[in-house]
What we know:
This is Cadherin domain-containing protein. This protein has about 230 residues and is mainly beta.
Amino acid sequence: xxxxxxxxxxxxxxxxxxxxxxxxxxxxxxxxxxxxxxxxxxxxxxxxxxxxxxxxxxxxxxxxxxxxxxxxxxxxxxxxxxxxxxxxxxxxxxxxxxxxxxxxxxxxxxxxxxxxxxxxxxxxxxxxxxxxxxxxxxxxxxxxxxxxxxxxxxxxxxxxxxxxxxxxxxxxxxxxxxxxxxxxxxxxxxxxxxxxxxxxxxxxxxxxxxxxxxxxxxxxxxxxxxxxx
Length: 229
């Protein structure tokens, strides 16, 4: 153990039974470090909605088995899109010699889903976080997608066809003024202009929908942008 004793001195003697010869020896102990690399930076997986800036986006943590101080740096194609806090010491883990540190990330400017500012323009921001204890370094590459603020669920990985979820219709009676719908809840069944059929549809990808008519009698009817025929 270098910290206990750095060298040992002995004299070696050899004899043939009548004559002896001796040589003094010094054995030097070379110090070796027990230091190990810190753990790879770990960031919470997830996503952020557009218009998020001052709110914390994610936290990256790392541990050092020697209890030393850790420094963090950011790099990668979208590093400039994030602000990174100074390392925060959060205590020791179950190992008494291990210390835990964290850094907090926020967006440097407001992300806009409709106007992506990441390097490749796909609304997925990529950053590499490197942690060092002064001797060893570890790095992790992290990605964080930005979602449309009006998307309540994660975007679908594939574009899906829209579906018609409901069609409401009523019987109609011709009048001298043309075709009109009779409101069954209207006292006296007084006719007035209104839609004959309402088409209700939805799209899993939240894309804008357009309606159209086809078939034998399509030319006799029209449908507007809201699905009213």
